[in-house]
Amino acid sequence: MTRLVDVLRDVLGPVGSGVFLADWRARAACASAVSDYYTIALRDDPFSAEDGLLGTAFGSESVLRSAMHEAFDQALITDRVGYRFPYHSLRQGLGDFADIFGDVDSVEKLAMSAIARVLVRHGDDAPIELMLALANIFYDEALHLESISLVLGYDQAERPWIAPNRRRAWELIGSAESMLSYVVLQHCLYEGEGCIAAAKAEHALGRLSGTALPVRVASRICREETNHALTGYFWLKQLDDGKADGFFAELARSWVESEGLGDRKTTKGRKRRFPLFLIAEYLRTRNSRHVQQLIRANVRAVISSGELLCRDEDLDEGAAFFGV
User: Fold this and answer.
1) What residues have CB less than 8 Å from 292, skipping those under 6 apart?
2) Closest CA to 28 of 127, 111, 118
3) Most CB within 10 Å of its CB: which of 93, 154, 261, 265?
4) Alpha carbon distances (Å) from 262 to 28, 35, 221, 249
5) Contact 222, 198 (CB under 8 A)
6) Is 125 exposed, middle or buried (0-12, 13-18, 19+ CB in 10 A)?
7) Which residues have CB under 8 Å from 152's CB, separation 6+?
8) Secondary structure (H, E, C), 176-214
9) Alpha-carbon distance 85 to 90, whole Å?
10) Using N-to-C axis directions, what is the helix angle for 4-12 and 24-44, rounded to 10°?
């Protein structure tokens, strides 16, 4: 019997090696098809994740589910990824886009390989719903990578997959001893900072026409990165099981040791403290919805004004909570 987690491992597992694969787009498209289909299929049939065949029919006459079933086989073999808007549209602001996103492709590749690696290492210990969520995030990161590559003219075959300046992050995320540790490191800490960085990018490009390609790409990346942080806190709550604060403090300190904290008076220092503030709030309340609301509110504020909504005192208290 084919298990869905084994399908995801077969598709994404090789990306976990951290080296360039020429078919990364096809792997991402397949992951998206499986994630989208089975996120709905599991509502229809709780045993569908262990069916022998992929893409079994739904039990109802739902128009949308029928359409998904009819399109599933084609979606499974699609070998490209991309947004719906044309990449040959107005190219105003490319210089600004290059300044902001010139090195961000290395972040997307790191995230894709980190997801693939954790699926292989800890997939048996996690709910299938989490595996599907991670497959969807893998697809999002592939969308970002493809868009940045097309806009800036990058050939990923000629660029390191795990860039030298991402090696410490790669090793830290790879040290996760459980799915919970991985979620905290990647989706609460790295993505907690990443959603703010993406919001700042959208704000910086906001002076351009909304039809300009750089603005469209930046806007999509911001929304998807925000979802990644929100997903992190949803699954943190599911996996937490009353872990002691010390467990999280050790991970937070290891993250700061790897990435640095910076001066809080600088944009980088404030951005770097934000995910520490979020985790401290989670530990104070054990309320993931509260933290998700903070993420949404602060991302919206940064898109609008370029500045975080939370106070400097909040950022300082978040860092102090972990003794950093």
Assistant:
1) 230, 233, 234
2) 111
3) 93
4) 35, 38, 25, 18
5) yes
6) exposed
7) 94, 97, 98, 101, 102, 105
8) CCCHHHHHHHHHHHHHHHHHHHHHHHHHHCCCCCCCCHH
9) 11
10) 170
- d(CA 314, CA 321) in angstroms, rounded, equals 10
Q: What's the farthest any 2 CA atoms get from each other in the chain?
A: 58
Residue type, 16: G
Residue 309: which of 323, 321, 322, 299 has the closest Cα?
299
Residue 290 has which token pair? 């509260």
In the chain, what are the domains? 4-51+88-321 (1.10.620)
pTM of the model: 0.96
Query: What whole-number distance in Å separates Cα of residue 313 and Cα of residue 3?
Result: 48
pLDDT in tens, 255-311: 999 999 999 899 999 999 999 999 999 999 999 999 999 999 999 999 999 999 999
Q: Which residue has the tokens 């370029």?
A: 306
Question: How high is the pLDDT of residue 1?
Answer: 39
Tokens of 100: 């902001």
Look-up of token digits 């990824």: 81
Mean pLDDT for the stretch of residues 219-234? 98
